[in-house]
Every structure is written in structure tokens, then in C-alpha cells.
């Protein structure tokens, strides 16, 4: 009898151990964070060592200045209700909860897979270049600095795979409103930076971009590294090619500042 009791206790203990080890090895059902990928548009933001705080701060800054350009973000509370109709209110709340996960937000941080670099995806109705220009112009004019963790804001009009074929297709769409509709001769420069990518050749990329700007001689635009009208911004992050075209500004010393989206640069100039 004692022997049976001991064996049953050992069997129970063994099963508990097996269950514990099984559950400890089971994968957690954690929602996977969206990653930087082709088809997105948004803003690359560099930070020193506080990515979470940078994201939170970026949301506040971007929403503040986006409200000035586009108005407040709709929150779904504009549906008319009868006030005293409790069932209607409950139905509206249920619909709101059901659609909360599917509703696209104006800004959403995605994983870049690169340290000290954040990408905030923009809603299709938001122009990243226009927004960053408006934000930094307002900051410079008001001399009011609200960022502690966000260092540089780099607008990205389009993202594609860092392959020659994809780059040509993507860049042609980005360049069209800037270079292909303009009859006058424009001077341009390319600012290039690659992170976590050793496969892409910098000189080949710049050569490809220059040929696409002129469409192999069909447009008379020319390279001018000292005094460009437009700057083509290229950021390669792992296997992603990020590109935008921004107006070039000059700083107080008369030299070209392609980093017109640099928050820290503005901050240093004002102090």
C-alpha cells in the first residue's frame, strides 16, 4: 500500500515537472512589432540611447504640428447619438472597440532593426517632407525647443528594397514632381548614408540617381554639390532604401545645410 502511494506520488510529481517545463518552453503569444519594409513613408528619427522615450516624444511633436497642417486626428467620436439612448451608446462603444485594432493611426512607430534609429510611419494623407519642414521652421522661428531625445528628423517619401531594379522604379515616382515637371535647369546634390548594410555600392547608387534625375540627358538638370536647389536624401537601413527630395537651405555661415531637418542643429544655432 505504501509502495503504491509512493509510486503514484512520484508519477504526479513527474507530470507536474513535465507540465512546468513544457509551459516554460512554450512561445509567448506576444504581438510582433511591425518592421521597416518597402511601401512605407514616414520619418527616420535618430536618438542617443533612449528609443522608447524618443518614440513617445516624436508622437507628441509630430501630432502637434500635424494638427496645424491637417487638423486634429479623427477619433471616431463624431457619430451622432440620441443622448439618452443607452443601447445606441453601447453599440457605438462595441463598434469602436472592434475597429480600434484595424483603424490606421496618423503615426505609428515601426522597428528599424538598427540601434538609435526610429522610424515613424505616416498615414498616406500626411506628407513627411512637408511636415518636417513645417515643424523645424516653426521651432526655429519661435525659438522654442521641445525635444530632449529626438536628434535628427529625416523625411522619407518612399521605401523600397535596396536593389537596382526596385530603386529605379521607386525613385522615378519620387523624382517626378520635382524634376520631370520642371522646365528650368535645377542644381541637385545627393546625401547618402548606409546603416547595417555592406552590400550596396555608394558610388553606383549615386550614379544611378543622377542618371534618373536627368533621364539620361532628357532633362538638363546638373549636379552642384556646393549650391544645389534640391537635395536627394538617401538612407539605407539594412536591406531598405529610403529616399526623399528636400529643398536645400544655407546656414548663417553661408555654407550648404542639407541637414535642414536636424533638430539639434537648430537648437545649437539659437543658443
TrEMBL record:
<dbReference type="Pfam" id="PF02926">
    <property type="entry name" value="THUMP"/>
</dbReference>
<dbReference type="InterPro" id="IPR004114">
    <property type="entry name" value="THUMP_dom"/>
</dbReference>
<dbReference type="GO" id="GO:0006400">
    <property type="term" value="P:tRNA modification"/>
</dbReference>
<protein>
    <submittedName>
        <fullName>THUMP domain-containing protein 1</fullName>
    </submittedName>
</protein>
<dbReference type="InterPro" id="IPR040183">
    <property type="entry name" value="THUMPD1-like"/>
</dbReference>
<comment type="similarity">
    <text>Belongs to the THUMPD1 family.</text>
</comment>
<keyword id="KW-0694">RNA-binding</keyword>
<feature type="domain" description="THUMP">
    <location>
        <begin position="138"/>
        <end position="247"/>
    </location>
</feature>
<feature type="region of interest" description="Disordered">
    <location>
        <begin position="1"/>
        <end position="25"/>
    </location>
</feature>
<dbReference type="GO" id="GO:0003723">
    <property type="term" value="F:RNA binding"/>
</dbReference>
<feature type="compositionally biased region" description="Polar residues">
    <location>
        <begin position="1"/>
        <end position="14"/>
    </location>
</feature>
